[in-house]
Design brief:
- This protein has 185 residues and is mainly alpha-helical.
- It has one domain.
- It has 9 helices and 2 strands.
- The chain has a two-stranded antiparallel sheet with strand order 1-2.
- The longest helix has 19 residues.
- It is globular and about 45 Å long.
- It starts with 9 loop residues before the first helix and ends in an 8-residue tail after the last helix.
């Protein structure tokens, strides 16, 4: 579990383990690998742990809430993923961006809409750096956005340019190309 977060957070993640890993019938599914400031993270594709009670989550400090919220954005239940995405107050550092971008590669258009509406919470410099550092992951996420639009959302949005995922791709691409700190000014 600690490998799903930067090593600088290992102590906090370890303290939060009772909230993050209640007994479950299934182990977390395979992980995807991303880099955050050069550090390799192994984030589970899906987790099957029960989410914490609202009161337990609300009693946490903001940084702890961000860790718990990111972890549960990987939950097998889409409603739980969305609930914890909404609990994030900012998408401002590389490891949080990793979890948010991963959600963009899923089929739930409401989640894409929420991320689009809250794009002002994303630090564009961090986003640009993270996307450049994770080019293969971003390419796969882009392909998934297009594929899920084609399979599930084309009837509602006949033109891809009208689909929320298209807007996110443009926003992500702009964070790479318009960001001097990414080396692509």
């Amino acid at each position: 579990m600690t490998t799903a977060f930067p090593s600088s957070l290992a102590g906090v993640v370890t303290r939060l383990t009772p909230l993050l890993s209640s007994p479950a019938e299934l182990e977390p599914s395979h992980s995807f690998v991303v880099l955050c400031a050069g550090e390799t993270l192994h984030i589970p594709q899906r987790i099957y742990f029960a989410p914490p009670a609202e009161s337990a989550f609300g009693a946490l400090h903001l940084a702890e809430q961000s860790i718990v919220a990111c972890w549960f954005t990987r939950h097998h239940d889409g409603h739980v993923r969305e609930r914890f995405l909404r609990a994030l107050t900012a998408f401002d550092c590389a490891w949080i961006i990793a979890y948010v971008v991963a959600l963009c590669g899923e089929y739930v258009s409401e989640v894409l809409g929420y991320i689009w509406e809250r794009r002002h919470l994303i630090n564009p410099i961090e986003l640009g750096r993270w996307l450049r550092e994770n080019e293969p992951f971003y390419a796969r996420t882009r392909n998934r956005i297009v594929s899920y639009w084609d399979c599930y959302h084309r009837s509602e949005f006949p033109r891809f340019d009208d689909y929320m995922g298209s807007h996110l791709i443009s926003f992500f691409d702009a964070s790479i190309t318009n960001n001097p700190s990414t080396g692509n000014a």
